[in-house]
Amino acid sequence: EQFKARVINDKICSDETLIKIKAMLEGVVTNGSGKQVVYNPLYKIAGKTGTAQVADANLGYKAKKQYQASFVGYFPADKPKYSMIVVINDPKGAYYGALVSGPVFREVADRIYASDVNMYNKVEEHFAGNTVAPEAKAGQSQATKKVYNAFGIKALYAAKSDYFNSIDTNNGVAYEENTPVKGVMPNVSGMGLKDAMYLLGNAGLKARIKGSGKVTNQSIQPGSRIGKGLVVDILLQ
Questions:
Q1: Torsions phi, psi of 17, nearest 5?
Q2: pLDDT by residue (tens digit) across 46-59?
Q3: pTM of whole model > 0.70?
Q4: What are the tens digits of pLDDT across the range 58-100?
Q5: How far apart are CA 160 and CA 198, in angstroms?
Q6: Residue 202: closest CA among 226, 167, 175, 171
Q7: Residues 6+ apart with CB under 8 A from 220
């Protein structure tokens, strides 16, 4: 037997009160305790910090002080899609919600924002002629093509291989194919760490990594003959 949900009270406050509460929650991030650690100019976050002292089961608040830091919020605040709460028990050092849980909330929210193209404002302009298209890392061709398509940017030439090396952004988007060959050093220049490690690992190589960003240098030249177990140094900037 199934029972349908019964709504006892569909609103906990008036529309006027709700507008005020939303403004307050956004204010926590834009002007309050979350400004330095949660605020992101690319999208709006609304939320509230929380700092609480936790009582001991036997000694109450007379025992060694222990705290719980939290930040709860939703984003994008103007068109809410995600809600999240970060709670950290017994943090070491600082224990305020904004300082401890706020940065965790921001990092998770930023990762979601970076991977959800629907959160971006619609791009009305279309790239044509000599208009310079936005730069992208080399790497997996289908993933890059998906992002460009979402922004209405048409690729001049889509690589048939799974990976590509570089993009010519001077006149549209052109992919240069990168087809891995067994026993040959792949070209990972311009790639992010994930794609570079995938190709190097499949080639049987061990990588020593320095820096972050895109691969700007690799110690073994692309096209060189290689054997399994070789160590290659890659520099990212």
A1: -65, -40
A2: 999 999 999 988 88
A3: no
A4: 888 888 889 999 999 999 999 999 999 999 999 988 889 999 9
A5: 18
A6: 226
A7: 185, 205, 226, 230, 232
What is the residue whose two structure tokens read 């054997």?
227
Q: Which two tokens stand for residue 65?
A: 């002080």
- The overall longest dimension of the chain from CA atoms, in Å, is 74
Rounded Cα gap, residues 130 and 23, in angstroms: 43
Q: What is the DSSP letter of 203?
A: T
Amino acid at site 71: F
- Contact present, 43 and 119 (Cβ < 8 Å): yes
**Token pair of 208 as six digits:** 């020593």
pLDDT tens digits for 127-169? Answer: 555 556 666 777 777 777 777 777 777 665 555 667 766 555 5
> Domains in the chain and their CATH numbers?
15-119 (3.40.710.10), 126-179 (no CATH), 181-237 (3.30.10.20)
